[in-house]
Amino acid sequence: MKLSGYFLPTLKEHPAEAQIVSHRLMLRAGMIRQASAGIYSWLPLGFRVLKKIEQIVREEQDAAGAQELLMPTIQSADLWRESGRYEDYGKEMLRITDRHDRDMLYGPTNEELITAIFRDSVRSYRELPRLLYHIQWKFRDEVRPRFGVMRGREFLMKDSYSFDIDYDGARRAYNRMFVAYLRTFARMGLKAIPMRADTGPIGGDLSHEFIILAETGESEVFCHRDFLSFDPLGEDVDYDADLQPVFDKWTGLYAATDEMHDAAEAARLGDALVSARGIEVGHIFYFGTKYSKAMNAVVAGPSGEEIPVEMGSYGIGVSRLVGGIIEASHDESGIIWPDSVAPFDVGLINLRAGDAECDTACNDLYGKLRAAGLDVLYDDRDERAGAKFASMDLIGLPWQLIVGPRGIKSGVVELKRRATGERDELSVDAALGWLTGGG
After folding, report:
1. For residue 309, how far is the Cα from the chain centroid?
2. What is the DSSP string of 365-427?
3. I want to staple 289 with a disulfide (CB 3.0 to 4.6 A). Which of 4, 95, 293, 363 is the partner?
4. Residue 166 and residue 335: Cα distance in Å, rounded?
């Protein structure tokens, strides 16, 4: 993509309404624009990141055995009356009436709807277990939406739901999602730590939040230092095996949000205790038969008896993750995207657009990088070098490939790693080899 034709409305100054780093940088980098309070349009650069994150989430859900479907954003109030949550949910639920005076709502979550789908489709325990998910927009009418996409009213969420015949099966599903979440966040370059959590309006008696550590995080968290060296991607996972040992490893050490913090327990850890700021990016729940009993989601057991299914739900804030990653990975110049979620792999900078030799060299590099399967943002604008460097640092692409008249005369280009600021002068072939994995 050539930057001269790319819709990237960057801002030079910090927007006055933005209170946290991710909100400021997403507005400045031309990723989002506010449509109304807590509701945002995703512009091309931001949408590319959103889709990269969504794809990682999808791949890890699929690997764990979950099957994707798609449920609507608008739901019938009757389902929520069945579960008993229609009145209890509160003003965060946007309640609407259609032209036939039927009570509807903009879904804040999907426990009721997925339970109804299961209830109408599955009859026997032989059809279990089932693990279903979708990635869909949600709406919760926050009384005070703030912090950009970190606490908006409309947000993109992955929510999955498990259905099992008994508690042991439900725990296996819970452990599957627990491990899938660890891998999902690690693939995004994040250090995510699972912490016991309150189940809130979802219900149930087992729940974990996944918290990423960030200096600008929204709340204080505490954990054992050993968590910082754990690597969820260190070995392959067999989802058909017993994952309880993995669960035990990640829950056997102290980890707590400020609401769940045990000062006495923390004091016993001494220097092994880490105190940091954290951001919640995922939440998993086991709630047993809370919804299946209320909504009569039963299957015929081995002896023909009706058994309410054991259920769990598992959420990841896909759009919230965009802000969370920025909070965890930025500097004074702008965003620093991890390679796996960057909107483009390389920023190609032509220091003297209009110069025949520079244009020829850049066009050749642009073609070769794209042919190698890399996403390239080519800054071909007639702008001063400082403005081009500032733009690239702001939007945070992992690599910058810099081409100028002096380098061309010497037979070199400059390669900059955004995360470290390290710069190397290389031949064109060496730079291409490095970026395409052959260097």
Report:
1. 29
2. HHHHHHHTT--EEEE--S--HHHHHHHHHHHT-SEEEEE-HHHHHHT-EEEEETTT--EEEE-
3. 293
4. 46
Average pLDDT over residues 97-113: 97
The DSSP-derived string for 62-98 is HHTT-EE----SEEEHHHHHHHT-TTTT-TTSEEEE-
Helix (H, G, I), strand (E, B) or coil at 15: coil
Residues 216, 19: Cα–Cα separation, whole Å: 11
Q: How far is 281 from 43, CA to CA, in rounded Å?
A: 22
CB proximity list for 265: less than 8 A, separation 6 or greater:
254
Which is it for strands 413-417 and 399-403: parallel, antiparallel or unpaired? antiparallel
- Please give the Cα distance from 357 to 409 (Å, whole number): 9
How far, in Å, CA of 371 to CA of 412, rounded?
21
Q: Which two tokens stand for residue 178?
A: 């627990």
275: left (phi over 0), alpha (psi -120 to 50) or beta: beta
Burial of 398: CB neighbours in 10 Å, binned 0-12, 13-18, 19+ = buried
Residue 114 tokens, joined = 């997925």
49-84 burial, b at 16+ Cβ within 10 Å, e below that, comes to bbebbbebbbebbeebebeeeebeeebbbebbebbe
Alpha-carbon distance of 424 to 410, in angstroms, equals 14
Contact by Cβ (8 Å): 32, 149: yes
Nearest-angstrom CA–CA distance, 72 and 333: 40
User: pLDDT of 6-19, one tens digit each?
Assistant: 999 999 998 988 98
What distances in angstroms separate CA 190 from CA 90, 193, 398, one per listed residue?
A: 33, 10, 15
Pairing of strands 399-403, 346-350: parallel
CA dist., res. 122 & res. 425, Å (int): 62
